[in-house]
Amino acid sequence: MPRTYRSAVREQAAASTRAAILDTAEALFAEHGYPRVTIARIAQEAGVAQGTVYASFGNKLALVRGLTERAAEDDCISSALSAIAKASDGGEIAGLAARSTGDVVRRHGRLMAVLVNNAADTEIGEIFAGTNRLLRERFRLIAARLATVGALRRGMTTARATDVLMYYLSPESWLRLRGLGWGWPACQDWLRRELLFALCGDLDDVADESPRANSMK
């Protein structure tokens, strides 16, 4: 029993150390740019030895992979997909999709910016492509649900609906609107309404308020 307890404590300590390293790397990559950040700087800011960073992850690229894996496992994603699988209304599905993607970008926006800004780098580009493939698969599930409940507008296929979801709800779209000074509620509301119209042709749910007017709320 004591040995099991000590093992659990060590595992918890190791997990905490890994999380601290990832948090530090994400912050430094976002603030200074991925190419300029060194393992030594990450170790110093995280309060660990360089050897600990290498032992926990290996190198900078592995840190980016670790960050993307952590973001991909965010609980809000599975919760949203579960809710969408039970929804029977196009407006509800569009709302859930917009809210959940917004939550993920808000929590992991620094990582998203690192991937987008360094996509030209061969290795980072491969990671970015992998995250987009995973995102497209999840959007395909949402598009399929819209098709199942008969919410897609005439002539809109599941494949085309998946493309539309990628266009409106990809991290780049959120980051672009945020870069224009829009607040999170305004981004979510505008993307939800535009998505609903593009996929379902339903204008009943579209409010008259300008999203720009609410951009700082």
Q: How would you portray this structure in words?
A:
The protein has 217 residues and is an all-alpha fold. It is built from 10 helices and no strands. Helix 4 runs parallel beside helix 7 and helix 6 runs antiparallel to helix 7. It is elongated, with a radius of gyration of 20 Å. The C terminus is likely disordered.
Estimated structural class: mainly alpha
Largest sheet: number of strands, sense, barrel closure = none
Radius of gyration: 20 Å
> What portion of the residues fall into strands of 2 or more residues?
under 5%
Give a quick rundown of the structure.
76% of the residues lie in helices and 0% in strands. By secondary structure, the chain is mostly helical.
Question: Keywords, please?
Answer:
elongated; disordered C terminus; 217 residues; mainly alpha
Secondary-structure blueprint:
Elements: H1 2-32, H2 39-46, H3 50-56, H4 60-72, H5 75-86, H6 90-117, H7 122-148, H8 158-169, H9 171-179, H10 184-200
